[in-house]
Specification:
Shape: elongated
Strand content: 5-15%
Strand order of the largest sheet: 1-2-3
Structural class: alpha+beta
Distance between the termini: 40 Å
Number of helices: 3
Helix content: 10-25%
Order of helices and strands: EEHEHH
Radius of gyration: 19 Å
Largest sheet: 3 strands, mixed
Length: about 130
């Protein structure tokens, strides 16, 4: 039986009752996926996985690489892009030749506090206010 214990903070929960060294059943995976959506970060204590078991477990989540979840940006001069790392993966592709010049600046903000609670609730699938996120 799976037990999900929230941390009490905006993010995070501990999942007990799973042995990640063996493949999860459809029901176990569904419960894990719901917990991940609800809590954003999951901790599975006292796991003993070899590389293969970790790969098998992790691949159940590869959905992020499906075409329908992709955003491909066609850069133009002076573009600024912002994305959150709660729900996205950044993968840069060298799509320019050695004779093309490119200057990119990156700013990574290290938060000292939890983001605006409205944003976090929206990112984690909870109801968003009628006016949307601002």
């Amino acid at each position: 039986m799976i037990t999900v214990t929230p941390t009490g903070a905006v993010l995070g929960a501990t999942i007990e009752g799973l042995d990640l060294s063996r493949p999860l059943s459809e029901t176990e995976f569904a419960q894990t996926l719901v917990a991940l959506g609800r809590h954003g970060v999951l901790r599975f204590p006292d796991q003993h996985l070899d590389s293969r078991a970790l790969k098998v477990f992790s691949e159940r989540f590869a959905h992020q690489l499906q075409e329908k979840y992709r955003y491909i940006h066609s850069w133009t001069e002076r573009d600024v892009l912002v994305w959150d790392h709660f729900g996205t993966i950044h993968r840069a592709i060298a799509d320019y030749g050695p004779d093309e010049y490119r200057l990119m600046k990156r700013c990574q903000v290290m938060a000292t506090k939890i983001l605006d609670p409205q944003f976090v609730r929206g990112a984690l699938g909870a109801p968003v206010p009628a006016g949307g996120l601002s």
